[in-house]
Each structure stands twice: as structure tokens, then as C-alpha cells.
Write a structure and sequence with these properties.
Keywords: Membrane, Transmembrane, Transmembrane helix. The chain is an alpha+beta fold. The protein contains three helices and seven strands, in the order αβββαββββα. The termini are far apart.
């Protein structure tokens, strides 16, 4: 029996070679199309996870420092607002662990006291000096037994500055929030203190160092 696609077969049709070539070309394109589809799905997954991660306050930049949330949510509570509770470290015993962080990010927000609109990010810095000193000082800050409550009493619609400090440790992360105006102390979402740390973070923001 003869093979109509065998070029050695004298009975093979004149279009056999062209048909075979087109089939071979189609086979070489399919892996490329499949790879493109997979790459697109992976990119979409990364974008989705990254977006959720940032909203949760756990997004880090290429250097490993926490990225500041784009907004500070108001109305705040007595001790302030944090984008997420401590993760990978114990946030119930102290504001931060007494260990040297690999990175400390300080975020500044310009807010209007007693206004319910969120405060936009005004700037951010990564500390270059005094990282261990910052963790040691905040880890020794005395806690408060009172529970945070939303502030509802009018205290004047004046502008104030909110600071968030994001600490990255070898095992996890923690955010510390302070609010100015003599209204509140500081919190990491689980541990609260009446200590006035506003100026400490304001100085760290200006100098990029904890001293």
C-alpha cells in the first residue's frame, strides 16, 4: 500500500509537502501561544495579590521595607489606626519587639481632626540610623489598660499630622501609629500606650534617624 504523504511515493499528491510544512509551522506556534497565556495569568495573579497585600499593610519594596498605605483611615480611635496587626511577631506584649529591625519606614499624613475623610499620604522616609535604638525604646514603652474607643466629641477642625512607623523584622512586621494634638498616645493595633511618641516620630521623619 502506498503512503500519499510520503514524498518518496511517486503517487503522492503535489500539495503533500506544502500541507506538511503548514502543519509543522502550526505546531511550533502552539507552545509560544501557551507560554504567553500562562505569563498573562501569572502577571494577573501577582497584581491581584500585590494589591491586596498593600491594602493589608504588608507590601514591601524591593529592599524589604514596608510600603506606606496611600491613606490613613478616619475617624481614628483614641490610640490611632494601623493598617494591620502585627504579623510574625508578638504585638500584644509591647509596641515592637526588642530586636533590631532590618528596616523602619516612617509615613506622614496630613489630617483634619474630627473629620471622617481619610488622610492622604504626605511623604515617607526609610530610617538610616538608630534602628535598634528605636525598637529598644518602643519595646519598653508602658502599656495602657484602657481600650481604644472612637473619638466622637468635637475637638475642633484643625489640621494635624499623623505618623505611621512600619518595622520589618527577621520574622515579621509591625506598624506603630501616633496621633498629635494631645489627643492620643500610640498603638500597634494590639498594644496601646498613652505615651506621647508624636515628636519622636516627627523628628525621625525629618532626620531619617532615631536618636
Amino acid at each position: 500500500m502506498t503512503d500519499p504523504t510520503d514524498p518518496r511515493d511517486p503517487t503522492a499528491g503535489p500539495g503533500a509537502d506544502a500541507t506538511s510544512t503548514r502543519a509543522d509551522r502550526s505546531l511550533t506556534w502552539w507552545p509560544l501561544v501557551g507560554a504567553a497565556v500562562i505569563a498573562g495569568l501569572v502577571a494577573l495573579l501577582i497584581a491581584t495579590v500585590g494589591g491586596n497585600d498593600e491594602r493589608a499593610g504588608r507590601h514591601v519594596d524591593s529592599a524589604g521595607a514596608l510600603s506606606c498605605p496611600s491613606t490613613y483611615h478616619l475617624p481614628y480611635k483614641v490610640f490611632g489606626w494601623v493598617p494591620t496587626d502585627a504579623a510574625g511577631v508578638d504585638g500584644k506584649k509591647s509596641l515592637v519587639p526588642d530586636a533590631r529591625p532590618s528596616h523602619v519606614t516612617v509615613c506622614r499624613y496630613d489630617a483634619v481632626v474630627n473629620k471622617t475623610t481619610d488622610a492622604d499620604l504626605g511623604g515617607h522616609v526609610t530610617l538610616t540610623e538608630g534602628l535598634a535604638a528605636a525598637a529598644t525604646e518602643l519595646s519598653r514603652t508602658a502599656g495602657s489598660s484602657s481600650e481604644p474607643q472612637p473619638i466622637t466629641e468635637p475637638i475642633g477642625r484643625h489640621k494635624d499630622t499623623v505618623y505611621l512607623a512600619g518595622f520589618t523584622f527577621a520574622t515579621g512586621i509591625v506598624w506603630v501609629s501616633t496621633y498629635g494634638g494631645g489627643v492620643s498616645g500610640a498603638t500597634n493595633g494590639q498594644f496601646h500606650t498613652t505615651a506621647r511618641l508624636q515628636e519622636r516620630l516627627a523628628t525621625a521623619y525629618r532626620t531619617r534617624a532615631w536618636s
